[in-house]
From TrEMBL:
Belongs to the class-II aminoacyl-tRNA synthetase family. It catalyses: tRNA(Lys) + L-lysine + ATP = L-lysyl-tRNA(Lys) + AMP + diphosphate. GO terms for molecular function: lysine-tRNA ligase activity. The keyword Metal-binding applies. SUPFAM superfamilies: Class II aaRS and biotin synthetases, Nucleic acid-binding proteins. The lineage of its organism: Bacteria, Bacillati, Actinomycetota, Actinomycetes, Micrococcales. InterPro entries: Aa-tRNA-synt_II, aa-tRNA-synth_II, aa-tRNA-synth_II/BPL/LPL, Lys-tRNA-ligase_II, Lys-tRNA-ligase_II_N, Lys-tRNA-synth_II_C, NA-bd_OB-fold, NA-bd_OB_tRNA. Homodimer. Keywords: Aminoacyl-tRNA synthetase, ATP-binding, Cytoplasm, Ligase, Magnesium, Metal-binding, Nucleotide-binding, Protein biosynthesis. The keyword Iron-sulfur does not apply. Pfam families: tRNA-synt_2, tRNA_anti-codon. Its cofactor is Mg(2+). This is Lysine--tRNA ligase. Its EC number is 6.1.1.6.
Length: 507
């Protein structure tokens, strides 16, 4: 952790201003408590008599002609995001949680001298305020409540950020609650995420999948090549791991007869954080008995396209920067070895030896991965030569066997497995397998992984005896897939991963 930077003169001045405003607002809090406590009000009443929401009033009366009175009385509450006090008539804009707004008009004629004076003296930007009165449109056509009564619903002790100066990205991430108040895109992203999850569940339901929950605390990590977080259980006096993937438990469910199963939940990987990676992230995994990696690719395309429609109304989505991106149609399927050979100008095969691949990588300025194997080198080369040019959604098929210990060997190509990675916007969005269900071969693969772990590879898997015992009871041929929910939001919205997570982990 680095020391915080010394405050600049401008930031010090801002801190002083906030301190002064806080002191003033705390004094107003005391006045509210003294003035309204007997009436059950104060600065933080337990409730206010809301009869209508701001969105519902906008939906019903949003098209009123200017200077129109409805005769309808409504009680609404919202956060004050604009205020103008002018003599005998005060104006405030109240904002609901979804960003919709209504104007409150507080006049001497309707509320009386004392109440109007209290409004001017006690109400600040950021306060939650309740107003009751007739629904009207102002002379300028603004939907309004002409208040005959008002009440503080919650006193804001700290001021809001200036609505006309954007929060920095770091500020948005660290203070998401402020981001949600002042920025439309932040609220839109939260709603988009909810729509995506609802769409995913609806698509799975239409294909007769069951949603389950599997352990996040595990006695042995597995299901992916990743470095885990380690914790300690006092109750069991043992080390536990935050899961890196739910795969091995979901496959147990398939063995048990839940032949179409999925889970949407959190994974944790003790690795780097960047624009496409977060140590804690939301993951979807699904398994379908009597399918394979081709069938699960079809399902994945349907899941993503339905999610795009749920958010954008179309498979052509518009990103935050205004770029349109087409997720529609049938997506390309290319082979890893074939596409690498074409891009690099020489043939690559599963039989290439490690020394030759290292020499080629070094000659082309490609980084050599730690603990290099044939598969790791092929994947590094592929990312260098091919990944950068992928624009459309693309399934990259048929991976090296040594980087995919949970995947079935290809039915016709020696040395590769039936695995695909889906690339969208140039990053990996999902991965899918024809699942390895032979417990004898699976044990051999685990043993090879254990050797890598013993040699210092922190991402290698260990031998999972409980999972092997489940496989020995018979798992049907199956297809499986995993997809990051945060990355799916990135593909649909064009945002970075920290913007798609409501409260991301930051230093």
């Amino acid at each position: 952790m680095t020391d915080a930077p010394a405050p600049t003169p401008a930031s010090a001045e801002l801190e002083d201003d906030v301190f002064e405003q806080k002191a003033v607002r705390l004094a107003k809090r005391e006045r509210l408590i003294e003035k309204r406590a007997d009436a059950g009000g104060g600065a933080f009443p337990v409730s206010v008599p809301v009869t209508h929401s701001i969105p519902s009033l906008r939906a019903e009366y949003g098209e009123l002609e200017p200077d129109t009175a409805t005769g309808v009385t409504a009680g609404v509450a919202g956060r004050v995001v604009f205020s103008r006090n002018t003599g005998k008539l005060c104006f405030a804009t109240l904002q609901a949680g979804d960003g919709s707004r209504i104007q409150a008009m507080v006049s001497l004629a309707n509320v009386g001298e004392e109440s109007l004076a209290d409004w001017k003296a006690l109400v600040d930007l950021g306060d939650h305020v309740f107003v009751r009165g007739e629904v009207i449109s102002s002379r300028r056509g603004e939907l309004s409540i002409m208040a005959d009564a008002w009440q503080i619903a919650s006193k804001a002790i700290l001021p809001l950020p200036n609505a006309y100066s954007e929060l920095s990205e770091e500020g948005r991430v660290r203070s998401r609650f402020l981001d949600l108040i002042v920025r439309d895109q932040a609220r839109t992203t939260v709603r988009a995420r909810a729509a995506v999850n609802a769409s995913l569940r609806a698509t799975f339901t239409s294909h007769d999948f069951l949603e389950v929950e599997t352990p996040m605390l595990q006695v042995q990590h597995g299901g992916a090549s990743a470095r885990p977080f380690i914790t300690h259980s006092n109750a069991f006096d043992t080390e536990l791991y935050l899961r890196i993937a739910p795969e091995l438990y979901l496959k147990r469910a398939v063995v048990g007869g839940i032949e179409r199963v999925y889970e949407i939940n959190r994974n944790f990987r003790n690795e780097g954080a960047d624009s496409t990676h977060s140590p804690e992230f939301a993951m979807l995994e699904a398994y379908q008995a009597y399918s394979d990696y081709n069938g699960i690719a079809d399902l994945t395309q349907e899941l993503i396209q339905n999610a795009a429609v749920a958010v954008a109304g179309s498979t052509t989505v518009t990103w935050a920067d205004g770029t349109e991106y087409d997720l529609g149609g049938e997506w390309d399927r290319i082979s890893m070895y074939g596409s690498l050979s074409a891009a690099a100008g020489r043939e690559f095969t599963p039989q290439d030896d490690v020394a030759d691949l290292i020499a080629f990588a070094e000659a082309n300025g490609v980084d050599i991965p730690p603990h290099p194997t044939h598969g790791k080198l092929i994947e590094e080369l592929w990312e260098h030569f091919v990944k950068v040019d992928l624009v459309r959604p693309t399934f990259v098929m048929d991976f090296p066997v040594d980087t995919s210990p949970l995947v079935r060997e290809h039915r016709s190509i020696a040395g590769v497995v039936e695995k695909w990675d889906l690339y969208v916007r140039g990053f990996e969005l999902a991965t899918g397998y024809s699942e390895l269900v032979d417990p004898v071969i699976q044990r051999e693969r685990f043993v090879e992984q254990a050797k890598l772990a013993a040699g210092g590879d922190l991402e290698a898997m260990r031998v999972d005896e409980e999972f092997l015992r489940a496989l020995e009871h018979g798992m049907p041929p199956s297809g499986g897939m995993g997809m990051g929910i945060d990355r799916l939001l990135m593909a649909i919205t064009g945002l970075g991963i920290r913007e798609t997570i409501l409260f991301p982990l930051v230093k």
